[in-house]
């Protein structure tokens, strides 16, 4: 049985095959509003989720917070109190995450977060998005092997840019690289020529662009127009069609981006541990939404289902019934005890308490833009 419901524009879908007590999964995403660039691809992946978890019937309730933290909080409260869910997936936005975290913890409900800023070491909160430090580590290694020593940061003057800069700073230090300049611009600023000139004054070997989508492409364009011929890197969030289509393809040719395995699933080497699960996801997703439609947020959502599916299968051994505090506790223990689980985002393994399973070095692959598409970067 499948039902499509709508309530105040917030309840997008609810579906199940309800023959007996089922596992109830509450999902809160920013499927509309300013955060839809993350929430909409995640929603599209959620709509492809199988109707079972760990061979048990699953009931999915999908809510849209419209990129409003207040609505996100109301949605989470509703999932916890009215729907009495066993687990929450989401949210996708940092602001919603800050609201949702204490609610899930107070209710002692596992939350598989799809926000890049989800805390990594709090009880009941399970980050699904690979840590940005893994992306900057991969970038720093590539820079080092390419012979770069002097690195510039050109990015947003906001918490997003700050977070990427801090991770790059640590990764560069570990790789023996020197950050020679930290140049920032405002969100929405379109003329970046002056910023590019200030970066070039420090004669960097490589530049890291701390921005997303089309805005990141404009930063690359400003650097190229001012004569920079060195290597340019950007964030994992730039690995979206808006980046590839925003400017003349020759401008971004050769730019390096760290991506999760699903983004280049068909180009992964046979020995990559996430290759099979990533390719399976991409085939399902593209069959519904078209070739080249997979985005990082979609991979996050499918990774959440794979992780949850594995954990539910193991949690059943505790003998607790869905809908009970005992089952939720067993599910949390199973999530924590995940070992070498391949998902489209990489490989998850248990971390010593109070940490949760985290990704290993297979989570990010450095790619290069070649003829308008992303491909594995040539060995440096």
What count of helical segments does DSSP give? 12
Q: What is the total domain count?
A: 2
Separation of termini? 53 Å
As a percent range, the share of helical residues equals 25-40%
Low-pLDDT windows of residues: 1-9
Describe this structure in words.
The protein is an alpha/beta fold and 380 residues long. The protein has two domains: 198 residues, 3-Layer(aba) Sandwich (Rossmann fold), CATH 3.40.50; 141 residues, Rossmann fold, CATH 3.40.50.2300. Helix content is 38%, strand content 21%. It has twelve helices and 18 strands. Strands 1, 2, 3, 4, 5, 6, 7 and 8 form an eight-stranded mixed β-sheet that branches. A four-stranded parallel β-sheet has the order 10-9-11-12, sandwiched between helices. Strand 4 and strand 5 form a beta hairpin. Helix 2 runs parallel beside helix 3 and helix 11 packs across helix 12. It is elongated. The termini are far apart.
